[in-house]
């Protein structure tokens, strides 16, 4: 591909409210001593920014509220020149918020209040007729909207099946690329069998595996790093994988690139604030086994 990949991301835009604590609370437990911070987030916006920072031309489609949180949630997309003309501002609805607790080892617990993301629909989406090399979406949108996209968009269609929820079989049949982690792969189980899609299983620090027609076709280890915050690492992998796959056409190389990008994203706090540059990803590629 001679030009930078052109990627349309249709998904969630959130403001992440993050509390850093020594240990994650157990059910019914109160943990004190936390440090609070606000970061732009949302799986759609995260993946859009990751792809943009790695060289793609990216257009973001979704919804935010007409509130102060929207400006914060969109700030890094705007600063990095992601096309935001497809983001609709809705009156009377709050911008989506994610409440995130992160412990000293970088592990997290997340609760999402969708807000305006629940209103992303055919009636609120901007024109989808543009020229893009791929369309990428996630499941922080209504299922009906994902079905609409599966019926409407043309070209390469990638779905990150996160967070896992029941999905019509015809939507999975339409996808060209499906990305799942271990929990999501177990949730969908037999629904993933027999699909024509390239299926990417992410395994966190253990790397990722690609399957097609029920057979493993490639795998990659992940560079060994000491994580600061794992929030957004999976989204970084997805954005990086799509950019590399569109640029080179090699599944194996795209897996390695995605794993390196995901590892790099764990080295800083926050989701979008941790998204790596191309130089940072390439520096870690040499550590991949």
Describe this structure in words.
This protein has a nine-stranded mixed sheet with strand order 5-4-1-8-9-10-11-12-13. A four-stranded mixed sheet has the order 3-2-6-7. Helices cover 29% and strands 28% of the residues. α7 (251-265) packs across α8. The protein has a single domain (6-14, 42-96, 117-285), classed as UDP-N-acetylmuramoyl-L-alanine:D-glutamate ligase (3-Layer(aba) Sandwich). It is globular. The protein has helices at 43-53, 68-79, 143-152, 169-174, 182-188, 233-248, 251-265, 278-285, and strands at 6-10, 14-20, 35-41, 57-65, 83-90, 96-102, 108-113, 134-138, 156-160, 177-181, 198-202, 208-212, 215-220. The protein is built from eight helices and 13 strands. The chain is an alpha/beta fold.
Please give a quick description of this structure:
The protein is α/β, with parallel strands linked by helices and 289 residues long. It has helices spanning 43-53, 68-79, 143-152, 169-174, 182-188, 233-248, 251-265, 278-285, and strands spanning 6-10, 14-20, 35-41, 57-65, 83-90, 96-102, 108-113, 134-138, 156-160, 177-181, 198-202, 208-212, 215-220. α4 links the parallel β9 and β10 (177-181).
CATH top level label: Alpha Beta
CATH topology: UDP-N-acetylmuramoyl-L-alanine:D-glutamate ligase
Tell me the radius of gyration: 18 Å
What are the secondary-structure elements, in order, as H or E? EEEHEHEEEEHEHEHEEEHHH
What is the CATH superfamily? Ribokinase
DSSP helix fraction: 25-40%
Number of helices: 8
Walk across the major sheet and give the strand order.
5-4-1-8-9-10-11-12-13
- Cα distance spanning the termini: 27 Å
Large-scale geometry = globular
User: Care to count the β-strands?
Assistant: 13
Give the uncertain stretches in residue-range form: none
Structural class: alpha/beta
Q: Give the name of the CATH architecture.
A: 3-Layer(aba) Sandwich
Report the β-strand fraction as a percent range: 25-35%
Mean pLDDT figure? 93
């Amino acid at each position: 591909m001679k030009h930078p990949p052109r990627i349309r991301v249709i998904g969630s835009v959130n403001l992440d409210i993050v509390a850093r604590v020594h240990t994650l609370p157990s059910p019914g437990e109160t943990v004190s001593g936390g440090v609070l911070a606000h970061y732009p987030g949302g799986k759609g916006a995260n993946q859009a920014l990751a792809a943009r920072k790695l060289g793609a031309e990216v257009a973001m489609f979704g919804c935010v509220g007409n509130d102060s949180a929207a400006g914060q949630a969109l700030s890094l997309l705007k600063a990095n020149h992601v096309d935001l003309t497809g983001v609709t501002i809705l009156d009377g609805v709050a911008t989506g918020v994610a409440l995130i607790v992160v412990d000293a080892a970088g592990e997290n617990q997340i609760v999402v209040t969708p807000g305006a993301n629940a209103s992303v629909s055919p009636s609120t989406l901007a024109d989808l007729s543009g020229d893009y090399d791929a369309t990428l979406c996630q499941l922080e949108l209504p299922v009906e909207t994902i079905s609409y996209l599966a019926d409407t968009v043309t070209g390469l269609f990638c779905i990150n099946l996160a967070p896992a929820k029941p999905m019509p079989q015809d939507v999975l049949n339409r996808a060209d690329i499906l990305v799942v982690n271990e929990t999501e792969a177990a949730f969908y189980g037999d629904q993933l069998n027999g699909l024509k899609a390239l299926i990417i299983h992410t395994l966190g620090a253990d790397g990722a595996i690609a399957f097609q027609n029920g057979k493993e076709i490639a795998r990659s280890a992940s560079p060994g790093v000491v994580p600061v915050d794992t929030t957004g690492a999976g989204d970084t992998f997805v954005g990086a994988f799509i950019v590399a796959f569109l640029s080179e056409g090699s599944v194996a190389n795209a897996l390695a690139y995605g794993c390196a990008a995901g590892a790099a994203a764990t080295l800083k706090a926050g989701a979008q604030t941790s998204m790596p540059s191309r130089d940072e990803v390439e520096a870690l590629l040499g550590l991949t086994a």
